[in-house]
């Protein structure tokens, strides 16, 4: 076996040739990949080797010797180090080009579908301060209850007040809530001992409604003086319509526990998307970038090319947003989703918008779709919007058997999208086009909508 010519603590000079899928610069030393934070393709740097594994290693920049024209100067490196904004050092044009290339690459390399028509990515006019939701860990740092983000690959809290990609009103709310908690002596969670109490502060804010929800994730149900605390929060943040305590007693990285208790107001906020009103509860999924979600849904509806006689299945429907956005264009919509809270929201959302041609059912897509098929349900258009891991192959088989004339696939992970499109292509569907939409500026993530038609 060839021995590696570099070792931990070596100082070497490298050229950056690529960006990894998670936004790290990639250099190769005699074919061995080194991943280097805060570098860009075309740059040269003197780096310190931090770690070497069998297949790849990590290094950090000591001196940047040649800069890329895509480099942004005067950045806040904390945003990169914490992983809040891993592409903060890259111009927005550079970010968009990188993401579009990534989508092209997965269809060529993973799916072996080099002919795929990938449309130019749709970016944002103002690609900062877009997130309508924040999940912020709470720890004790220097004797103070602190909020911030973990340093990447660690659970060391870096205290922060400006999160750059979040709605600034959310940043402001986190500080106010943190300070009220500190005033009333609430103890920060101690992860190493699964002790202490306040684990996370979650804030959701309606982009159009401005209604705000605060979720206090605690280890125990005890929250002394909560009546006084919620009054003070509401006094300082009149937009707050809901304060929920979520109890998560487990030693786990999963943020939310199973139990919710409403401490103030209602247990949901409302917001709007494409002119329809939605109710969103603490545990329901809701797209974090409202402006781009509207762009994404419009593309999905355009690709669906709907007729008034169509039956549409909205699989992985969350609180029903896609199905309800298109319900007035079709005969009926059937939505399915595994989270009962989201389905409860979806049913109320249909009523709130006076939409009567929709039905929502709780269930796992891979189990419920075969039941629907057996019951004789037929769909003209199938819309899917699964989590990052994509679709189960059994779901794809059922979908193919149901034989909708069109499938619109909304995806937050181009790799699983490409894999699944290849399967659909093998089973009688033609991939017409893929539209990338930048839902997550300053990060390497990219959303896509794909149009598949039955051959
Ligand atoms: C990316 S979200 C999309 C939600 C919705 N379409 C929207 O745009 O807001 C994926 C949804 O799939 C749900 N989900 C996850 N696994 C599922 C499964 N096996 N079957 C059905 N729904 C699932 C999640 O609860 C989540 O609401």
TrEMBL record:
Any one biological process term the GO annotation gives: rRNA base methylation
Class in the EC hierarchy, top level: transferase
S-adenosyl-L-methionine among keywords: yes
CDD domains associated with the record: AdoMet_MTases
Record's keyword terms, sorted: Methyltransferase, S-adenosyl-L-methionine, Transferase
Any single Pfam family the record assigns to this protein: tRNA_U5-meth_tr
GO molecular function: rRNA (uridine-C5-)-methyltransferase activity
List of catalytic residues: 412
Domain spans labelled TRAM: 5-63
Gene3D superfamilies, per the entry: 2.40.50.1070, Nucleic acid-binding proteins, Vaccinia Virus protein VP39
Entry coiled-coil feature ranges: none
Origin: domain of life: Bacteria
EC number: 2.1.1.190
Residues annotated as binding S-adenosyl-L-methionine: 287, 316, 337, 385
Family: Belongs to the class I-like SAM-binding methyltransferase superfamily. RNA M5U methyltransferase family.
Protein name according to UniProt: 23S rRNA (Uracil(1939)-C(5))-methyltransferase RlmD
Protein source organism: Vagococcus coleopterorum
Gene assigned in the entry: rlmD
